[in-house]
Amino acid sequence: MTTVFGRASAAAFAALLLAATPQAAMAQKEQKPPALKLSKPVQSLAAQAQKAQGAGDWAGAVELLKQADAIPNKNADDLYIVNMLTLNSAINLKDNALIEKSLEGAVASGKLPAEDVVKFRRNLGALALQRGDYGKAQAEFEQVLALNPSDAGLLVEIAELQQRQKLPQKSIATLQQAIATQEKTSKADETWYRRALAIAYDSKLPAEIVSTSEALVKAYPSPTNWRDVLIIYRESAKLDDQGNLDVMRLIRANNALTGERDYAEFAETATTRGLPGEAKSVLDEGIAKGALKSTTPFVKELSAVVTPKAAADKAQLNQLEKEARAAANGRSAMGTADANLGFGNWAKAAELYKLALEKGGIDADTANLRLAFTLGNAGDKAGAEAALAKVSGAPRNQLARYYAAWLATKS
Question: Which of 66, 97, 124 is the last residue in one of the domains?
Fold first, then answer.
């Protein structure tokens, strides 16, 4: 005999989705009820169970459905109706174990439409996750993913499960897959990029730190992201003062210096490296932005040192350039280029970095990195890209990649 499974199961299914996975609330829409061919014993008990549910006797319905479930030789429709009605009661009784058992039974019946199999398995994963069974949750989510490989959000959930199981490299790879999947249709969420970087950093995975940090600033080049990425790079690269200056210059170029500590460190490092013009520029900017107070003893003392030195250096730039051009090697040209960079004389600095490279006797990677920075600020993007391509030695080769990401943001 044929009966129709209707509103009770549809309501139950919607309620389950709301309880277990809020993002699936769209499933509240009514579905066309399937026609079922039930065996007589199951049909009788199912009808009694539906009547009990209609009267609000959820527990009584469960007992009737247990009897139906115990009947031997049930057909697929029997299994489907028993589990769907049990699911309805389980939700109202807030019995997660019974909800999970009913979901599994409904899937096993083979009567669910393909789209509902996806939803049910997703809920099974959510319930397993809720009770801390990460292996079961991942297995369910992976089956859902096999049915719907474009579900980037699900990939993110799988990545979190992998991280909870102490599989950071797999987790990062899955997050990167989620980002790539999402980017096919729309921009991936910033938190996915940041999460991948956080896992790489916490797990001390150098290669993954590089790939995830680059991806973050390319997709979301905010000051906060730039500062986080470059501070992480600086910590891992163990740079000297010269390398530290190049990092802080890029942080500043991305408007990512924050607070007294950043400005003070930059100004002090530039002073130590004999660049009073750059130190004064940084102090002035910090004061203008409210990060430094001109009345603070440290700021007053440093300003008193660098202000006259900056004026003296600026007055000597032309003479220093003449000496650099006459020198046997490129060291004087490099120093004079650095001074011009500190004063923001981008075109002249670029000219002198090129001269230093021609004459030799200097670190070519450092010179090409700074040449790219000055050319980028001067508006010669192609020239800057060519200079960055010549930076090959560690640790500046990675810093060059960050400079390339910054360069890509310039018009």
Answer: 124
